[in-house]
Amino acid sequence: xxxxxxxxxxxxxxxxxxRWLAGTLLGLPLSVALCALSVMWLPGGWQSGAVGAxxxxxxxxxxxxxxxxxxxSSLAAWSWLAAxxxxxxxxxWAWRLLAGGAA
Length: 103
Description:
Blueprint: H1 3-8, H2 16-40, H3 46-68, H4 74-98
Helix pairs in contact: 2-3, 2-4
């Protein structure tokens, strides 16, 4: 490689590894919670769609990991994914409270 080609090359954005780590660590519980929320709306409840929801978790997790590297900073990735987890698990908790503990 010549020096001219190296000058024009794009450098990787700083914090790429920590954004990827945020997507990996916070993306799995987020994908599980989102899949659980989607199953709750089915007529048979979670019993009728649990297997399908678990199968859908893997592609959703990969999508979250892929999208996590698009954040501007590592702090933004961690913050938004943590807020998404709090919202999703809060919705699951509210669903359980409203359903009277039956779900």
